[in-house]
Design goal:
29% helix, three-stranded antiparallel beta sheet, 2 domains, 5 strands
């Protein structure tokens, strides 16, 4: 189970502290809306998918003892008109799309490259995003004393 705690920063507009078990990072909105002190929430989402994809590919290649030297992934999030999609249900609506450009460096043969591209869709974050996870909101009473 993964757990993070997210806390707003009252001294900035949208700056948010994200705390894991042993790491802390900042998230923010870009200027002019935020103070641009960290990646935006969508950048963090793309980073999670990219990092997991890279780790999954490296793990698989090492297990197979394939000469994968480096993985480079560029991810882009956008919204496109559903009419541009092959399976749109309602005209005029937009769908959310993540494009994942995967570059595999090293003297891999065509079969190894093809298999690694297949493996990319098996990374846990990719599977989670495609499964449309349930999100449960649980509101917690503030237990801190008021000053």
């Amino acid at each position: 189970m993964a757990t993070v705690t997210v806390k707003s920063d009252p001294t900035n507009r949208f700056t948010t502290h994200i705390e894991g078990l042993s790491h802390t990072i900042l998230a923010d909105e870009p200027e002019p809306f935020g103070d641009d002190l960290g990646p935006s929430p969508y950048e963090l989402l793309l980073a999670s998918l990219g990092a997991c994809t890279s780790m999954t590919l490296q793990m698989y290649a090492r297990r197979k003892e394939w000469p994968l030297e480096e993985v480079r992934i560029t991810l882009v999030f956008d919204r496109v008109h559903a009419g541009d999609a092959s399976d749109c249900e309602e005209p005029g609506t937009k769908i959310e799309r993540i494009r994942r450009n995967i570059e595999l460096l090293g003297p891999l043969d065509d079969g190894q490259r093809k298999r690694l591209i297949e493996i990319a869709s098996k990374c846990p974050v990719h599977k989670t995003l495609q499964s449309k996870p349930t999100i449960e909101d649980i509101f917690v009473e503030n237990t801190e004393p008021m000053l």
